[in-house]
Every structure is written in structure tokens, then in C-alpha cells.
Amino acid sequence: MKRIVPALLVLMCAASAYSQSGEHIIPAGSLISCTVSEPKLSSKTTAIGDPVLCQIGHSERYGRSVLPYNSYLVGRFEDYKDPGHFVGKGWMELRFDRMVIEPDTTIPIDAKVVAVPGYNVDRDGRIVGKGHETRDIVTWSIPVLWPIDLIMLPMRGPRPTLKEETRLTLKVMDDLAVPTTEAPQQEPSGLLRRQPTSYTPPPPPEPAPSPVAMSYIPAPPVYYYPAPARTVWMYRNGYAYRVTIP
């Protein structure tokens, strides 16, 4: 009895510490879903070691949000195997090791892919491609299709390919401490209300320069004076005539 009481006190202190720190625990074995953002993810378009982003979907437990909004998983294209020409299926492996919570929080995580729509996933988390283990068994049994089968014989089987918006289901392998965030308020119509953001008003416009007063000086009047009349004397037939030219 003396040992039980201190153990209970330790558990209560730990629970209060987690509540004060604003974190909650996602236990190992929990399933989370995320959506691939790349348009086409396969061994043909991605090399080993390339980063992979997966947007985390919304999930709730007991009416409360388990994973923060605006968060995503960061991983790597771990390994792959192309399908054989005659036998064998192709596979690829994705490994996620970080959770990024906007704007600048990064949490280490160990998560393994366990389910992908349209594909099988083995116990190692590898996404196995479609097709038969022995290629074209049915078509080779039809003699009429043999010419087509001979042409397609050197080609490999289909590779596993994840299209954009493919939803992955992952299993958390270790306990994960996630900071608690408030979910955005929801309107009665079902839409989410965006949280108010800090708004900095633009600086007031500079006052317009005062107009420059321009003085108007009228042009001086122009006076026209008639040219003086000219007098011309003309002599004709012994007589003198005076002619005035205006």
C-alpha cells in the first residue's frame, strides 16, 4: 500500500505536467491518414532518397481534435523494386520520420504505411504493385493473341503508382507527443471560420503638393497706325497734277 500511493502521485504529476505543457499523447499503434500531394509518385518519376510530403487529414477522438490543423508528414522514398519481365511484382516503400506543424514546429515521428487504396501493403510497409505473379498466363493460352503477346513480352509489368490526392493510412510505431491546438470554429452551415489575423493598416497617403499659383500677365495691346499718305506729282501735257496715294 505504501508503494502504490507514491506511484499514483507520480502518475498524477505526469498527467498535470502534460496538461500544463499543452501536449497530448498519441499512443503507439494509432492510425493516421494523410494525402499525397505529388501528381504521380512511382519508381519511374522518383529516386531513392527524394522527399515526400503528405498532408494530414482531420481526425477526432472523443469530440476533440487529435492532430493539429495545417500539419503534414515529411518522409523519403526509401526503396523500390521494378516488376520483372516474366514473373514478380513491383513494390515501393515510403518512410515518414517528421511531422511539421505550421508555422515552425517539427516533431520526430516513426510511422509506417499500412493501407493504400487499390494496392496491397505487406508487413514491412511496402506498397505492392498489381498484376499476376506469372505474366499473361491467360492470354498465352489463347493462340490468336500470341503475336500481340510476343510484341509485349519484353515490357515489364505495371509499377505501383500513387496519383495526386491518394489517401494513405499510416500506423504510429512509437508514442507521439503532439502540441494541443485550438480547432477553428465551425459555422452552422458546416464551413470553418478562419481565425482573425493581425492586420497592419497601410500608411496614410502623402498629402498632394499644393498647386503653384501662376500669375497671368496679359499681352500688351497692339496698335495699328495707317501708313502716311504719299503725294506724287505727275506732269502731263504741260500741266502738273498732284496725286495722293493712301
TrEMBL record:
Keywords: Signal
UniProt feature, compositional bias: Pro residues: 199-208
Cleaved signal peptide residues: 1-19
Region annotation (Disordered) ranges: 177-208
Protein name as it appears in the record: Uncharacterized protein
